[in-house]
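Progress against Task 2.4 (sequence-to-structure conversion) is shown through the following example record, which the project officer requested during the mid-term review.
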Amino acid sequence: MKILVAGATGVIGRRLVPLLLDAGHEVAGTTRRPERAESLAKLGARPIVVDAFDAAALTAAVADERPDVIVHQLTDLSAEDFDANSRLRAEGTRNLVAAARAAEVEAMIAQSIAWVYMPGATPAGEDDPLDPSAPPYDGIAALEAAIATMPHGVVLRYGALYGPGTWYAPDGAIAERVRAGELALTPAWTSFVHVDDAATAALAALDWPAGPVNIVDDEPAPASEWLPIYSEIIGAPEPGIARHAAATSRPVSNAKAHDLGWKPKYSTWRTGFAEMRS
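Structure tokens generated for the chain above:
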């Protein structure tokens, strides 16, 4: 198949492109930064320099490429600007879907997130409602609504990404906050997914039915459980206890992804975190 990866030089995109090429697909990838085009070419993908906010240029690029599938991995989090990322999820996705429809591309796979479900004690499944009070909700709701207008749209609701190049890497933003003592032991839930497993899910999703799929590992955990282990591994001080903190967020189920045949290499964050020691 001809596949266009939008956001091909991001933390997932640069892992996904080689997987697609190894599977025999013809791959083109977008980046908004001209200096990153060469890295795509070295991987064997056809680089396309285009900004998702430039609707006309994006429409022309997709029309020229005419892929069978678009994999949407666009994010804007390098500067930790959550408003910019929400805007990209809303406007960028809208432009990408419009470009796909204009070029008669029928299938799109898109990156979403798994930590916006309504709070609850049981693991959240894909049919459970999202929480409108969650800060990322507006951007996620706009993204998923746009993807739902595609003839065939798959939404990958990723858990918290960890691994090399992510915020949880030893040199990442979360690691810096933990070393600064900004995170405490609370009952807040996190469902993790290693970035390599996030990429394999995007590859597998080429054969999946339309709709949302949670992409998380097999062991959701509260911060009171994972944070002490993470802190010790990255050499941070022992985190403090947040007294009287209420449980927030929710564990997330990956049962649907398992039923579709996806099994994470890192079934638990414990294994993935342990690799940070080396």
